[in-house]
Amino acid sequence: MDEDELGRALRAAQNGDEESFRMLYRDVQPRLIRFAGAIVGADAEDVTSEAWLQIARDLPTFRGDLDGFRGWTATITRHRALDHLRRRSRRPASDLPVEELVTMAAAADTELDAIDGLATEEALRLIADLPRDQAEAVLLRVVVGLDAKSAGKVLGKRAGAVRTAAYRGLRRLAERLPAPRADAADTRPLVRGDRNGGSGAEGVT
Fold this sequence. Notes:
The chain contains 8 helices and no strands. By secondary structure, the protein is mostly helical. The protein has 2 domains: 90 residues, Rna Polymerase Sigma Factor, Chain: A (Orthogonal Bundle); 88 residues, Winged helix-like DNA-binding domain superfamily/Winged helix DNA-binding domain (Arc Repressor Mutant, subunit A). Helix 2 packs across helix 5, helix 6 crosses helix 7 and helix 6 crosses helix 8. The chain is globular and about 45 Å long. The termini are far apart.
């Protein structure tokens, strides 16, 4: 479905149309499950199930467009994921998540490109290994499809801080990926540009 159709589905779902709600679910759930998976790992299904209970309950009162809806659902999912981590932290120490890696800014200042043919599962595994602030920023920009301002609302940060975290995360990923094939026709940026046409990494050092 295109964005216009999904926008109409959003309005209809808010008025109680079940098929429109299913259309929104099919669009958003794959994004949310990947986002939650980077935070809570194998428990992502449980987290997104809890999130959708709240989404369905509060949808009639939501105010905003399709992009706003995606950001709103990501915010709810993140809150449920962090709640899940807090509950998990009260379990025995062997159940705790692996410590986050310490981030270091890369020395180079190069444009980051996706590696053609990289498996989705492998990409998500690498993203999940990033420090949480970078992983969340990359996932919200790349997987959920939010611009820096909307992602900042989800994370409670300024748009510039999200751009910086996403850029550093992507540069860290680039260091761990194999070199692109010499015969690759083209590559696409891992982070879509902001709506003003920029890469989202301007001014980041």
